[in-house]
Design brief:
The chain has 282 residues and is of the alpha+beta class. The chain has helices spanning 8-28, 46-62, 77-80, 95-100, 179-186, 201-207, 222-234, 268-277; strands at 36-37, 43-44, 68-70, 85-93, 106-113, 116-124, 129-134, 144-149, 152-155, 165-170, 192-197, 213-216, 220-221, 238-240, 256-257, 260-263. The strands form 4 sheets. Strands 3-4-5-6-7-8-9 form a 7-stranded mixed beta sheet, sandwiched between helices. It has a 5-stranded mixed beta sheet with strand order 11-10-12-16-14, sandwiched between helices. The N and C termini lie far apart (47 Å). Substrate binds at residues 71, 92-95, 224.
């Protein structure tokens, strides 16, 4: 088996995401981030637009037969509903964190096949950390989950829960971990630590075995979750809806996600059971 870090398709995707990161960081250093408001009142910056341009061009050159759905290039459902495969892209996940200049933003690229995310690549421009996961063989890349930082590559996997149990929480969206869920978790794990972060960094930290759980009860879109879901699943974890089913993509006219849970196989059933019984689901 060819080492994934030397596989030409992986190297091409890595170059695309590195080029997008360079475009983002060039703007990040400027005083004016070019912030505007979109029609849904969410912010967009010059960096979102610049990174999107780089990624769209790169993916279209790499796989001209696979269409692209991006946060900055939304395609009507009537046009995309028959797409069997597609790239799902968030050129700058965590725009609010970018504007705050706290460094907690990422670039997300996912390949979706028949609704399932089978490949994900996420890069953190401010730290230089990258994550890559494949859940089924694609272009001779066999299933794997890796992290890279510079020239260092390592396999990653979700961890068995330990003390303290680490729950990732959102930096800018939604409430902290519900108190009754914390109490439920403390029936087994005496210490539960909350760690706030922005963007898909939360899911990647779980995939690499640094954290154990993320419960999201605020709004997200398909491009926010597809890449991290592929990485999490490749690393042995789950990104699932409260009914226990994994997310599927490009199946509905709406691109908005419902609530979801990210965890390893030991913690996920505990959170699912809590969710079904709890009144605190807002």
């Amino acid at each position: 088996m060819l080492d994934v870090s030397r596989h030409p398709t992986f190297k091409a995707l890595q170059q695309i995401i590195h080029n997008a990161a360079d475009a983002i960081m060039e703007i990040y250093q400027k005083a004016d981030l070019g912030v505007e408001q979109k029609s849904d009142d969410s912010p967009v910056t010059a960096a979102d637009i610049a990174a999107n341009k780089v990624i769209m061009a790169g993916l279209q050159a790499l796989t001209p037969d696979i269409p692209v759905l991006s946060e900055e290039a939304v395609v009507p459902f009537d046009e995309r509903k028959d797409w069997q495969s597609l790239w799902v892209v968030d050129p700058l996940d965590g725009t609010k964190e970018f504007i705050k200049r706290n460094g907690e933003f990422s670039i997300n690229i996912a390949l979706v096949s028949e609704g399932a995310p089978i490949l994900g690549i996420v890069f953190l421009p401010t730290t230089g950390e990258g994550y890559f996961g494949v859940t089924e063989t694609w272009q001779d890349i066999e299933p794997c989950a890796i992290k890279w930082h510079g020239d260092n590559y390592e396999s990653i996997s979700v961890r068995a829960p330990r003390e303290p149990l680490v729950a990732m929480t959102s930096r800018s969206h939604g409430p902290a971990l519900p108190e009754d869920l914390k109490e439920t978790l403390k029936d087994t794990y005496e210490q539960v630590r909350e760690l706030p972060k922005g963007s898909s960094i939360k899911g990647c930290r779980i995939a690499e075995g640094i954290a154990d759980l993320h419960l999201r009860r605020g709004p997200t879109s398909e491009w926010d979750t597809a890449a991290q879901q592929a990485i999490i699943e490749a690393a042995g974890g789950m990104l699932i809806a409260p009914n226990g089913e994994p997310f599927r993509y490009n199946q509905r006219e709406t691109l908005l996600n419902g609530h979801f849970i990210v965890a390893g196989p030991e913690i996920a059933p505990v959170v699912l059971d809590w969710y079904q019984q709890s009144d605190d689901k807002a």
